[in-house]
């Protein structure tokens, strides 16, 4: 049985988007991560778990969760070897997640964003579907043959980037800018902002991990 877990992290949280996604996703568990727990508190949404070092959280809100709720709290020293979002992802996997949706993983500092994108490797290698979502972007990792359908796409654009190594024998079919048997390097921007030409786009490559971003312009 599929188990859906949503992580509300401490990056940019667009109110209407996040509330809509929390309702639409209808997850079994919600994990609040540092500033993400403040968002949940202000919208009277009780998380299933709380994770973080509490270094950026209003003390009053932290005390509320500690003293007035029974929400399990995984509190860590700010000096630690993993980001709060990574710890939350590992917790979600421990809880048996088959699908992980991460909100609040973008916006603000780019170092946090890039760490969050790389952290998707942990569930990917364990065979767990994980995706970062905001109002303009859907970010996930793929390995091998992948089909994107226009009717299901997050937006009109998609970009792909190699994660950590060169990608050999990359082909893109059904796109405005097709490729055949291309060698994609980590510093290659060739595959940015491609678009649908047909109703389905097929991405194939020999080995490695590719970051797939489906994107749309801000409304």
TrEMBL record:
Q: What class of enzyme is it?
A: transferase
Q: What is this protein called?
A: Thiamine diphosphokinase
**Which InterPro entries did the record assign?**
Thi_PPkinase (IPR006282), Thiamin_PyroPKinase_B1-bd (IPR007373), TPK (IPR053149), TPK_B1-bd_sf (IPR036371), TPK_catalytic (IPR007371), TPK_catalytic_sf (IPR036759)
Q: Please, one GO biological process term? A: thiamine metabolic process
Residue ranges occupied by any Thiamin pyrophosphokinase thiamin-binding domain in the UniProt entry: 144-211
> What Pfam family does this protein match (any one)?
TPK_B1_binding
Question: Which EC number(s) are documented for this chain?
Answer: 2.7.6.2
The organism encoding this protein is Dorea formicigenerans
The record's CDD domains line, in alphabetical order, gives: TPK (cd07995)
* Top-rank taxon, per record: Bacteria
Molecular functions per Gene Ontology: ATP binding; kinase activity; thiamine binding; thiamine diphosphokinase activity
Q: Which UniProt keywords apply?
A: ATP-binding, Kinase, Nucleotide-binding, Transferase
